[in-house]
Amino acid sequence: MFRTIEWIDGVNKVRLVDQTKLPLTVEHIETDSHERIAKSIKIMEIRGAPAIGAAAGMGMALAALESKAKSKEELVKKLEEAALTLNTRPTAVNLTWATRRMLNLAVATEGSVTGIIDRLIEEAKEIAEEDVRMCRAIGENTLPFIKSGYTIQTICNAGSLATVHLGTVGAVVRVAHEKYGNIKVYAAETRPRQQGARLTTFEFMEDGIDTTLITDGMIGTVFRDGRIDCCVVGSDRILGTGHVTNKIGTYTMAIVAKHHGIPFYVVAPMSTVDMNTRPEDVVIEERDPDEIRLINGTPVTVPDAKVYNPAFDITPPELITAIITDKGAVENPTEEKMRRLYES
Ligand code: MRU
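# MRU complex -> structure
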């Protein structure tokens, strides 16, 4: 199981697994530049909402080290610029959550510039450690919904690689498998970036979990045939209304699950919950058309084919059986229940 990203003490560098190369080769990127981190997030060398939140936190610490600031005011200004540079993907709320947390800390901390920078480094490491703890809590909080012998359908990658370690869906599968020893997974391929094929199938198979890869279009047949006991998906932004933003195809999966009476669970840390945005105001990232026109660099259509490539979709609460976080579960989510969870 991967440690997706880590801070290297002593040299003050960040080390991350290059997910664009997986599963064929396991390569790492090491950098002391926040601009390099921003690039890694943009081109998806690191991806998954909690992982890019951790990367952004560490990127802010690198920016503080790079700043050569002589005063706190100068440091805060550099950090404001770095936050803008690091926010390269608009949909996952964890990214702005992490940069804001680092910026607020810099503003609130008194003392010398070097003292503030040391504090920022500790905070970036703490964001990563918290993520590992939150994932385990999500796995434990979801256990009551998973029975021995369950086959779990998932989409994209919400495993170890999408977080710092363990994963959100990854934790659900691993904690249940630790207990029962017989959990199975169906992974949807997840066009166009194939996170389900390249990452989820790879990491669960590495852990010895029985995993079956299907293309996204097979979901209806697989659900109708009774192969799936429940769906468990991650999220990039859970709204106070109970709407869930996640990888494109999640909404379709939720509709098909509802049609076949299959429970549909969403799992995420509280850092993914956004109580302030309405569904109509969520910015859905649209990515390069060539992600669809080409597969592994090979054209699969005419070069000028008109393409629509939204990376995420929004699933409404009426299709969701429960939203499960590190702080607890909300069954049949409503705005009122989400507020109670948030305030608790
Ligand atoms: O575009 P990606 O690969 O960053 O999308 C990731 C997802 O949609 C995940 O399901 C989500 O971030 C949750 S990860 C724990």
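# post-check
The chain has eleven helices and 16 strands.
The radius of gyration is 20 Å.
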